[in-house]
Design brief:
With 184 residues, this protein is mainly alpha-helical. The chain is built from eight helices and no strands.
Length: 184
Amino acid sequence: MSTLNPQIEFMTLYKPEHEAFIRFCKAKAYGVMDYKDLVNETLLRAFESFKKVEKLSSFKSYLIGIAIHVVQDQLRKQQSKEKFWYSQNCETPQTSNSAEQKFEIETLYKALEQLPNEQSEALILFEITGYSIREISAIQSVSEDAVKQRLKRGRDKLGQILGVSEIKSEPIKRPSKVLFTLFF
């Protein structure tokens, strides 16, 4: 780490990631906790241990990893409680106030919860957050081929869950927005 003020250095690394990170948190926190709490808790934990970060080039992976752990911690706390799909404190990303669109977003998030964690996270990171295959590979600590396989299997399973008979999956380059264009 350099000799810059840690707060300035942290914010310099975080600012370009802010919008994508917020989108990731909204999707990952859905049904578990308020996404704003996830963002705040993650940023607090990330800054508190920021001096331990050896490679600043892995800042994205560092942030996403902490957010995933915060959600897992929250899920462990909730295991003994009844799980609610939707609560007043849980917001969904909205581009309009359409009741139909809110229902579609809720349906998508519920379907994502039914996928294996690795597939769900890969889809959220790629389709919603817009991270590249290479970035997801670093975040999930797997090969790029493994990420592509998770995305393909996740899309196929999501299609089954949502009752879509065929999801036309293009070769993976950038988010295909097959299902996600309706929502984001």
